Each structure stands twice: as structure tokens, then as C-alpha cells.
Amino acid sequence: MKTSANLLWSLGLLIIIFGLLFQFYGYDKTWKLWNIPTMTPCFADTRVITAGAEACAKGLDPMVNNIGDPWNRRLNYPRVWQLLYAIGVNQAHTTYLGIGLIVLFLAGICLLFPSISNTTVVFIVGALVSPAVLLGVERANTDLLIFFLLAVSVVAAKRRHLGSTALIFFGFILKLYPIFGLMVLLRKKRSIFIVFSALSIVFVLLYAFIKMEEILKIIEVTEKGTFLSYGLNVFWTRVMLDYPARGIYAKILSYLVALSLLAFSLTALSRNDLPQEDLELPYLDSFRAGSAIYVGTFLLGSNWDYRLMFLIFTIPQLVSWANCTAPSVSWISRIILCALYPSMWFLLITRTVRYIPYGSYMIFLLTQTSKWLIFAGLLYLLFLSMPAWVKHEANKLKSLIRRSTQRQCRCNP
């Protein structure tokens, strides 16, 4: 049996299992098996969009007063989503849209991994059924759509970089952060990547200038979490909530660690630890896209854990590199894989320690450490796996800076 068929069989079996659980065990009870907090009515994150139709019908702005939302949440998506109201989409369509997003998410996984080993299938399924990913499914979050768009973009990048870029731009307009996915274009020639990167920067700056008020409103409206979240600001925000006097030190420490990791990872541009054959593996594009999404969103500050679904993009390459002949690459890949699952299974782990004194703090520190390890490891491997022309340009820049510094030292004894 082909390994791609094993993934299809696994996904089909999961659909059947969840269908039976929903039917005979109960919808809410099934999610509670993973310790996932449910919201009723279902598909809450899609509903915040569809509920906006009621506000618009009464001449209100759902980003200010989303009267149709059952939880009184303001719409925290770009206004382009409100075009759905023009074609008659309203809250009655929430279930259909939610199921559609889930189907697209599963289709994206099938597109990404047409041929993988049985071991990799196990790793992917382990991530797929994690509480972090299932939280996004239970909420029918629009990240499921972004996952699909990025998956198609990765596949398209091999032949049609214009189409790949267009999909990423479309994702950017929908949710902003998918612009990090442009790292997939690193597979192209130097000239193509530079041109498209420059155009992307111009596009992003122009869009931000035109939509600044809207973007600021989205940032204001979007809830920042510390419990089911990852990112640069999560640790120190939690410390500040519990110990305000120590919060500022935790903030400084977080930023210093991030800067140190970035500086250290830049040294990978001058290393050639990866054998040439490991730079030509079929899932390197997927790894770059998934790593860029995680690293980029991590640096943005705070993200809900369902966005960890994009780590699925990195799994086949990490499994392959875990057996790499370069010891540093092998160990870093294994550490990331080991850190990935405590991060994704955080919700269920919390259930096992709720009766242990300070158990919640211990698990919080464990998962935050795991998420920081993932950030550090992916950042380093992302730079290490850069094409030869990127490393060449980086080394030229490094030499130029060194010569400039030496000249200044001679002029200023």
C-alpha cells in the first residue's frame, strides 16, 4: 500500500470515529474528552463573522457593535469578510461554512503530503488529533481556510510562482499574518525572489497605509490570551497578571532571549551543515512556509493555540532531518519534534495535574518552554536551510561590515 493511501485511510478513520462519537456519545462530551471548552451554538469563530450580517442589515458596524453575536463579540476580521453579506450569507449559514472550512483543512493536508512514510503519518495524525488543532476545528476558525490556501500555495510554488504569490496575498488580505508564507518562494531563482519580495513589501506597506485604521481596530478588538496561547508576549503577560512587580523583568527577559536567539540563528547563514541532498527534499518548501508562519506569528506577540496547526507543515521535513548525518541538524529536529507535542496537547495535560499543588504553573512553564524551543529550533533551521545565494549575499554583507568597522578603528585610534 502506498504511504499516501495510509494518510487517506487515517483521515477517513478519524472522520468516522468523530462522527460516531458525536452521534452516540454527544457533541459536547466528545470535545470534553480532549478537555476542549465548547461554545454553544457551534462554530463560534465562524459565527462572529456570519452574525455581523444582522448588524449590517440595521446599518451598524459589526466591528463596533456586533449585535447578532451570541457572546456580544465585535467582529475582529478585515472588512473584506463583510462581502459575504452581499451574497446573502448570515448566521443561518454558520454550520455549512464551518463544515466547509474543516473539509478544506483536511484537503490541504492531503495536498501537502502525497507521499510520506508511515512514521511521518503517525506524527501528523498525532498533531492532527491534538487539542490545539481540534480547538480550531471546534471553533471552525478561519485559520482552517488559511491552512488550505497556504497548502495550495506550497504546491503551486513548484511551477507557478505567480499563482502561489497571489494565494498568499489573498490570505494576507483575509488575516494579515499569511504574508510570512512568502518564504516558500525561496525555491525560486535569486532574481525572482528579490523581485517578488520587493513587490510584496510595497504591497504590504501600501495596504497598511490605506487600512491602518481598520488594522488598529482589529488589534484592539482581538482578545489576547495567556492560557491557550503562544508568542513572545505570552509568558511575561501571564507573570504580570500574577506578579505585577516582576512582570517588567519577565518582559525584558523575553525580549532579550528573543534577540539573542535571532542573533545566534543568523550565524547559521555562514554554516553548511546540511548536505546538498537535504536541501532538495520534497518537503523543504512546506517546512519553510510552516516555520515562517510560526516564527513570524511568535514575534507578533500572542496567538491562540489553534494556530499551532501550521506546525503540521514542518513535520515531514523534521522527521527526515531527525536522521540527518549532520548531528546538529538531527538533534535540533528531534528536540523540536519532542517539544511540538506537549505544546499541542497542553489542554489535555492540564487535566492530569489539576490536583497537584501549583500544577497549573508547572504545566504553563513546561508548555511555554516547549513553544520557545520550537521557536528557537525552527528559526535556526530556517536560516540554515536558506539557498546558497542567500548565504553568499549574507557573507558578502558580513565581510563589508567587518571591513567598514576595521577602517573606522584605524581612523579613530
Summed up, the domain count is 1
Q: End-to-end span in angstroms?
A: 72 Å
Number of strands: 2
Order of helices and strands: HHHHHHHHHHHHEHHHEHHHHH
Major beta sheet, strand line-up: 1-2
Mean pLDDT across the residues is 89
Q: In this structure, how is the largest beta sheet organized?
A: 2 strands, antiparallel
Q: Structural class, please? A: mainly alpha
Tell me roughly what share of residues is in helical segments: 55-70%
**Unreliable segments (pLDDT under 50, ≥5 consecutive)?**
none
| Overall radius of gyration | 22 Å
Broad shape: globular
What is the number of helical segments per DSSP (H or I, 4+ residues)?
20
Strand content: under 5%
Can you characterise this structure?
The chain is mostly helical. It has one domain. It has helices spanning 3-25, 27-33, 44-50, 52-57, 83-86, 94-112, 118-128, 131-139, 143-156, 161-175, 190-210, 212-221, 234-242, 244-266, 284-300, 315-321, 327-344, 346-352, 359-384, 388-411, and strands spanning 229-230, 303-304. The chain has a two-stranded antiparallel ribbon. Helix 1 (3-25) packs across helix 2 and helix 15 packs across helix 19 (359-384). The longest helix is centred in the C-terminal third of the chain and has 26 residues, at 359-384. It is globular. The N and C termini lie far apart (72 Å).
Write the layout of secondary structure elements.
Layout: H1 3-25, H2 27-33, H3 44-50, H4 52-57, H5 83-86, H6 94-112, H7 118-128, H8 131-139, H9 143-156, H10 161-175, H11 190-210, H12 212-221, E1 229-230, H13 234-242, H14 244-266, H15 284-300, E2 303-304, H16 315-321, H17 327-344, H18 346-352, H19 359-384, H20 388-411
Antiparallel strand pairs: 1-2
Helix pairs in contact: 1-2, 6-9, 9-10, 13-14, 14-19, 15-19, 16-17, 17-19
